TrEMBL record:
This is Restriction endonuclease. It comes from Gordonia desulfuricans. InterPro entries: McrC (IPR019292). It holds the Pfam family McrBC. It comes from the Bacteria.
Length: 400
């Protein structure tokens, strides 16, 4: 097994050209030549595990695994998530911890029994059941079978199909603990007979949540994350690479968005996961702007911001005087200008905390830079106050 650490340069490693190419694709790795034909590998912001030419490659995160699982849980269900959910979870690997969390969510969802609902199904039967599909029947050259449209009450629902797909993906991962495999086996016994779907992730977008299926929400959200992480698998030449890889910037961004959405009292329509195609800098609508955070209410922008999974560029090494990278500040200024707001917030998620406000000289627009410490126990509080703290405590500055 090859163990690497996120954003950390490795010692010299002997790797084939194909393995190097796959490491770049799967883990966004940077490779440097070393002695004796070896290379030094620096993974990007992707963590997890993958099988690369029969080598089990694991990239461990710099953020504690329990904290990552906490962020994932909050993003999946911010109102019902309990911090104690991480108690007893394996801390040996991110995939094992997420598998255990997913299995627990499924078992809790099945507490009322597997979810069933009514659906319409077209069938060819030797007898009449439901109503005859007259259009298909008159075009049929034979009297039997009879094409009918029936109403079926069963467990072949989108929710269960998504859970089945995620469970099947997790069960084949190497390196899972015995407890995780036991829990996944219990889940599999419930969903194994559910019908499959060629694109379960697409099914998730069409689910309408109600009092009937809301108890499935956390499990389905976690299943979506599992399936997205499995889709990172790439093909290197003619060899398919199986892997479970989390994109840390995406995990942090969704976590921050969910907490800020709740803090502002917004819903997913007012603060969606993406503003792609909804904001442009120029009148010709050729310069697209895609803020990570944005809230529109009653046709007007109320809040705009961006999230960066990296340490802010400090002005003197003191976390309390983080000033932000120029390119990030220019990007935020573009968002604020297009939104017609007086203020924007730039959030850096790293290992230090602090806040500073820049006032743009020409317009008076305020650009807030907030550094969050992902390793701290009060990270939820840090995120919530990132959009509610005043400016009196932040060191002032001025930029053109």
């Amino acid at each position: 097994m090859l163990t690497l650490t996120e954003h950390q340069r490795s010692s010299p490693i002997p790797l084939t050209i194909a393995q190097q190419r796959t490491l770049r694709a799967v883990f966004d790795a940077r490779l440097e030549p070393a002695e004796n034909g070896c290379v030094r590998v620096t993974p990007g912001a992707r963590v997890g595990a993958a099988i690369i030419d029969d080598v089990h490659v694991v990239v461990t995160p710099k953020v504690p695994i329990r904290r990552i699982i906490h962020m994932i849980g909050v993003a999946a269900d911010p109102f019902n998530w309990r911090p104690e959910e991480v108690d007893g979870l394996s801390a040996s690997s991110i995939d094992d911890a997420l598998a255990a969390l997913f299995a627990r969510a499924c078992i809790r969802a099945f507490g009322r029994g597997i979810y069933r609902t009514y659906r319409t199904e077209r069938q060819q039967l030797s007898h009449i059941k439901g109503r005859i599909d007259v259009g298909r029947y008159v075009r049929s050259p034979l009297p039997l079978p009879v094409p009918v449209v029936t109403t079926v009450h069963d467990d072949h629902t989108p929710e269960n199909q998504i859970l089945r797909a995620a469970t099947a993906a997790l069960r084949v991962l190497p390196g899972l603990s015995d407890s995780s495999r036991t829990d996944l086996s219990a889940v599999w016994k419930v969903v194994r007979d559910v019908g499959t779907h060629p694109d379960p992730l697409q099914l998730a977008h069409g689910i309408v949540w109600s009092r009937h299926n809301n108890h499935y929400r956390t499990a389905v959200r976690l299943a979506e994350l599992v399936l997205r992480s499995r889709s990172v698998a790439v093909t290197s030449g003619a060899v398919a690479v199986a892997g479970f890889v989390l994109n840390m910037p995406s995990v942090v961004e969704e976590y921050v968005r969910v907490l800020i959405r709740a803090r502002l009292g917004a819903d997913e329509t007012e603060m969606p996961a993406s503003w792609r195609g909804r904001m442009n800098l120029d009148q010709g609508r050729r310069i697209a702007l895609i803020p990570d955070l944005g809230m529109r209410r009653n046709g007007r922008w109320q809040f705009v911001g961006d999230v960066k999974y990296k340490v802010a560029q400090g002005s003197g090494g003191d976390p309390a005087t983080e000033i932000g990278r120029q390119a990030d500040l220019y990007q935020l200024l573009a968002y604020v200008t297009e939104a017609g707001l007086d203020e924007g917030t730039l959030i850096y998620a790293g290992a230090s905390r602090g806040e500073v406000v820049h006032t743009v000289r020409a317009t008076g627009v305020r650009l807030r830079v907030v550094a969050l410490d992902l390793t701290a126990a009060d990270i939820d509080h840090q995120v919530r106050t990132a959009v509610s703290t005043g400016f009196s405590m932040a060191p002032p500055s001025s930029i053109v």
